[in-house]
Amino acid sequence: MEINISLKSTTKLYIKLFALVLLLHFLTLFVKHGLGFETAKGFVPLFHMDFERNIPTLFSVFIILQLSAICMVIGLSVARDRKYWLILWLVFAFLAIDEFASIHERLIDPVREVFNTSGVFYFAWIIPYSLATLILCIYLLPWLIKLPKSTKYGFVFSGSLYLSGVLLLEGIGGWHHENNASQKNLVYDLITTAEESCEIIGLLVFFYFSVKYLITNAGLKRIQLKE
């Protein structure tokens, strides 16, 4: 049995799904801020990007789990730099769990109490996650430099997008949240929209370039991957 998977078709499908998720999210913003309905009988919590364990969350988890699986397959298929791909496999597996279970949210109060954080560090989980990200980037840098040019630049671009959302825009959102009596007004929701969009687009870019690397460097006999 042979399974044919087109990278371009799959990527286009995910982009369309993301566009649908984003459209429904903007509809929740209209319902919430334009019409004044906080929940609209569950519609807002179901499609709002800042809520947990809903449609946008499941979409993100779905993509992250695929990235974890792709990194595992590459790690098991190529001898060169295997450990780096397997590390990414574990990182994405953790990110999927964290995205669904909101582990980082549980760190906000304990870290804030220890460091007395405010401003861009109001959502204090940013501190330990930034430190972990820095350590990971330093460790992966020699491997990243040796990757093929298109893969390397693609990964740098995807990582920049993802981190600008998950850390930079999260910090800006925290600062705004603190300075507006912890109210999640329209400005905060728009910051969240930009944050979540950067994260998902970054994941989709990584998906494209990691699968492209898989096509070029890992020979699979039962599944045929095509560009």
What's this, in brief?
This protein has helices at residues 7-34, 43-47, 55-77, 82-101, 108-115, 126-146, 149-178, 186-217, and strands at residues 3-6, 223-226. It has one domain (3-226). By secondary structure, it is mostly helical.
Describe this structure in words.
The chain is mainly alpha-helical. The chain has one domain. Helices cover 74% and strands 4% of the residues. It has helices at residues 7-34, 43-47, 55-77, 82-101, 108-115, 126-146, 149-178, 186-217, and strands at 3-6, 223-226. A two-stranded parallel ribbon has the order 1-2. The mean pLDDT is 93.
Low-pLDDT regions: none
Average the pLDDT over all residues and give the rounded result: 93
User: What is the number of domains?
Assistant: 1
Largest sheet: 2 strands, parallel
Which percent bin holds the helix content?
over 70%
What is the ordering of alpha helices and beta strands?
Answer: EHHHHHHHHE
Distance between the termini: 20 Å
Question: Helix count?
Answer: 8
Number of strands: 2
Question: What is the overall silhouette?
Answer: globular
Classify the secondary structure makeup into a structural class.
Answer: mainly alpha
- Cα radius of gyration in angstroms: 19 Å
Roughly what fraction of the amino acids lie in strands? under 5%
The largest beta-sheet arranges its strands as 1-2
Q: What is the element layout, followed by pairings?
A:
Elements: E1 3-6, H1 7-34, H2 43-47, H3 55-77, H4 82-101, H5 108-115, H6 126-146, H7 149-178, H8 186-217, E2 223-226
